[in-house]
Amino acid sequence: MSSPDTRPLVLRGGTVLTMDDAHTVLPAGDVLVVDGKVAAVGTGLDVPEGTEEVDAAGGVVMPGMIDTHRHMWQTAMRGYGADWTLTQYFVWYYLEHGKTFRPEDVHAGNLLSAWEGLEAGVTTTVDWSHGLQSVDHAEAAADALLAVPGRFVLAYGNIQAGPWEWTADPAVQAFLKRRADEGRLGLQLAFDVTGDPSFPEKAAFEVARELGLPVTTHAGVWGATSDASIQLMHDAGFMTPKTVYVHAASLDTDSYHRIAATGGSVSVSTESEQSAGQGYPPTWQVRKHGIPVSLSMDTSVWWSADLFSAMRTTLGADRSREHLEAHVEGNTVTQVHLRAEHVVDWATRGGAKALGRDDLGSLEPGKTADVVLIKNDASPVSFPLLNPYGHVAFQAQRGDVHTVLVGGRVVKRDGKLVGYDGGAVRSAVESTVEHLRGAMGEETWQAGMNPALPEDGDVLDNPYTYTEYKSDETREARGSLFGS
Ligand SMILES: [Zn+2]
């Protein structure tokens, strides 16, 4: 992404959250970017001749945020499922309408989603792309990501087939190898482990290992994946420091020990867990085990790609739980465990660590220059700036994102995306909506905002259409939901 001909740029006089190991904060600091890298961070920096100056005074300069789990293809359905539960999501996407998405529909969703993230200061996003029912869909997903000047990881998945089936497909493997050689996108494999004791997903883990790709998996999702899934992965040696466990909400202490011991990280989607029902947002448990955390937004079918919202709701959910547990014991919480500084760390460093990208997530000389300036002089919410972490987590919002750099390249300037052809993106998304609406019929389309369950109710035990496996265990997670 960095290009040697990018003009040097300095952000002058902002409150700099470096997010380095010591979490150094510079009250009136400069960040100099040269050739796509952070060249210097300090006060009153000398800069090369011709350097572009951005006045950051009154604002906060921080590393670009990192979203480790978003189903970007679903963005063309923005807000459609606002009132869904997880079960209704499974019915709509997994059972009934996910197959209706053509490659161009995946392309349209990804394009919109990619711009949406950049606009909010999210410079890296993992596209948890489980709508890739053919390699043509995968090409479309990748092409859309490469058409937008952000940093993306394509996490290849396909809910229409077993992971052991699609990972064995030579065409899928050829796609992954070619895209890996190109080196323009990060790559992961994205699939869930149902807990079936015959462990059919083993073959998919073996492909991931052969191709050198990390696995990201929805773990601890009430009614879908459970402790049995973690045990199978652990016993077979597939839990690694690069494994990302999404949600990890309905798990017991033993599973958290296994995650902690093998060095993996948890991607918390607090807004999703709160509305959809994977389990209570797990930071209150995860932090007790020292498991690294990153944040994610899951899907724009409910929420937008806004990590300010993730930081805010994660603080709220953790504190809410802590107060509630104390009150049950007749106690009061006098000092909360989770601080604003922690969630800012999770939104930046946490994501970088989860992806094994030491060059991202902090503003230090030599790091890749993914930088965000939050500054909105017209807003009465922009001052006084007394507690910068608290300001970012509870006061700022996406409309305050003034400047965004990805690899030193300006992708948002003065509050406006650079190179964004809104008309073209809108017309692509409108075609997708028209296609889906036409294919479903108006009545089904309207009813889909609150879809009924199929008569057999099987989706409650197993949302995955590619396996008959069912277990009571996914519905017996009560112990862990209320603390083991
Ligand atoms: Zn998800």
From TrEMBL:
<dbReference type="InterPro" id="IPR050287">
    <property type="entry name" value="MTA/SAH_deaminase"/>
</dbReference>
<keyword id="KW-0378">Hydrolase</keyword>
<protein>
    <submittedName>
        <fullName>Cytosine/adenosine deaminase</fullName>
    </submittedName>
</protein>
<feature type="domain" description="Amidohydrolase-related">
    <location>
        <begin position="60"/>
        <end position="411"/>
    </location>
</feature>
<dbReference type="InterPro" id="IPR032466">
    <property type="entry name" value="Metal_Hydrolase"/>
</dbReference>
<dbReference type="Pfam" id="PF01979">
    <property type="entry name" value="Amidohydro_1"/>
</dbReference>
<dbReference type="GO" id="GO:0016810">
    <property type="term" value="F:hydrolase activity, acting on carbon-nitrogen (but not peptide) bonds"/>
</dbReference>
<dbReference type="InterPro" id="IPR006680">
    <property type="entry name" value="Amidohydro-rel"/>
</dbReference>
<dbReference type="InterPro" id="IPR011059">
    <property type="entry name" value="Metal-dep_hydrolase_composite"/>
</dbReference>
